[in-house]
Task: inverse folding
C-alpha cells in the first residue's frame, strides 16, 4: 500500500513509521510541519529505509491536495494535531482549526482521491470526566462521549466527520483509536519523545531524574482516588504503534470501528513518580500545585474490544519498563 502518515516526525507518529518501515513493504510518505516534530527523527527513520518526507502544514489545503494528486494514497494514518489540554482551554480556536477543520479537509481529500483506509489518532479525552463509580474495570467504547475541554471536543468533532463520511461513502473505511496516556521510547532507543516543554507526566519525571528540571509538580492531590492524585492508563508507545499496523490489516476484512487503546489498569501520579525514582535511582524534588483546568480524576481503558476483535496483544505492559525506556532515552538526548 501507499500510506500517508501525517505528523510522522512527532512522538507517536514516528514510532508508527518505524514499524511500517521495519515490518511492512508499504510505500510511506510522511508530512509534518515540524512545529512539534523533528527533522532529526526523520533522519533516524531513513536509516531503516528511504521514504518521502514533505515539510508542510495541513492548513495549506491547496498544496496538500497537490500531494494527493501526485501520490494516489491507499491509506492515511492521521496524527497531526495540537494536544495540550490546558492550552486548548486558553486557545480553543487553535484546536478547532488545527484539529477539526484540517481533519475535515483531509477526509474530503481522501474521498475525492479514492483513499479507502483512514486510521485516526483520537483520545480518551472524548469521554470527558466519567463518573468514577460507574467505571468499574475501565471505560469501554460504549461510554457516553462528553468532553470537558476543547481538545477533547475537537477530536470528537473529527470522529463524527469521519463516521458520517463513511456512512455516505461505504468504500471509505476507518479505525478510530482513542488513546489513553502514551509514554516510553523505542526499546532500541533510536527514537523517543523529544517534545519541548513537555507536559506528559512520565516525560517530565524523566527530565527531573536526568537533572534537566529542578523539580516537578503534582497538579492536585485531593481527587477522589486512592492516594488523591490523578489516575491514568499508561501505555508504551511501541504497543500503541503496533495497534496502528494491525488497524490497517483489520480493515481488509472488517468494517469500520472505534477502539480504546490502553492496558486496562491505572497508575496514579504518585505511583508513576515513585516508579521513575526507583528505575533511575534519583530522588528528585516534587511539589504539590493546584489542579489544572480540564483534568479528569481518572481515565482507565477497558480494552476487551481491541484485544478480542483485532487480536492486539501488548508486549510492554509494565510501568517500570515504560519508565525505564523513557529515562534511558532522556539520558541519551
Result:
Amino acid at each position: 500500500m501507499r500510506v500517508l502518515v501525517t505528523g510522522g516526525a512527532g512522538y507517536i507518529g514516528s514510532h508508527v513509521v518505524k514499524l511500517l518501515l521495519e515490518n511492512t513493504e508499504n510505500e510511506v510518505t510522511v508530512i509534518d510541519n515540524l512545529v512539534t516534530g523533528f527533522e532529526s527523527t526523520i533522519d533516524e527513520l531513513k536509516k531503516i529505509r528511504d521514504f518521502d518526507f514533505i515539510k508542510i502544514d495541513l492548513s495549506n489545503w491547496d498544496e496538500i491536495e497537490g500531494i494527493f494528486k501526485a501520490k494516489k494514497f491507499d491509506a492515511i494514518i492521521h496524527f497531526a494535531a495540537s494536544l495540550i489540554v490546558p492550552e486548548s482551554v486558553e486557545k480553543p480556536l487553535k484546536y478547532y482549526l488545527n484539529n477539526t477543520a484540517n481533519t475535515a479537509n483531509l477526509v474530503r481529500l481522501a474521498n475525492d482521491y479514492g483513499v479507502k483506509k483512514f486510521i485516526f489518532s483520537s483520545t480518551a479525552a472524548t469521554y470527558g470526566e466519567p463518573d468514577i463509580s460507574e467505571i468499574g474495570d475501565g471505560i469501554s467504547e460504549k461510554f457516553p462521549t462528553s468532553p470537558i475541554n476543547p481538545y477533547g471536543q475537537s477530536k470528537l468533532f473529527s470522529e463524527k466527520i469521519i463516521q458520517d463520511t463513511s456512512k455516505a461513502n461505504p468504500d471509505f473505511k476507518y479505525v478510530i483509536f482513542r488513546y489513553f496516556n502514551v509514554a516510553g521510547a523505542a526499546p532500541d532507543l533510536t527514537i523517543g519523545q523529544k517534545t519541548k516543554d513537555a507536559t506528559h507526566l512520565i516525560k517530565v519525571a524523566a527530565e527531573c531524574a536526568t537533572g534537566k528540571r529542578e523539580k516537578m509538580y503534582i497538579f492536585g492531590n485531593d481527587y477522589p482516588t486512592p492516594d488523591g492524585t490523578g489516575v491514568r492508563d499508561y501505555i508504551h508507545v511501541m504497543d500503541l504503534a503496533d495497534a496502528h499496523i494491525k488497524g490497517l490489516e483489520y480493515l481488509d476484512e472488517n468494517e469500520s470501528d472505534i477502539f480504546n487503546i490502553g492496558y486496562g489498569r491505572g497508575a496514579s501520579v504518585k505511583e508513576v513518580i515513585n516508579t521513575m525514582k526507583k528505575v533511575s535511582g534519583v530522588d528528585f524534588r516534587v511539589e504539590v500545585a493546584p489542579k489544572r483546568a480540564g483534568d479528569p480524576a481518572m481515565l482507565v481503558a477497558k480494552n476487551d474490544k481491541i484485544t478480542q476483535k483485532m487480536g492486539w496483544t501488548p508486549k510492554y505492559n509494565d510501568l517500570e519498563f515504560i519508565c525505564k525506556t523513557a529515562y534511558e532515552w532522556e539520558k541519551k538526548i
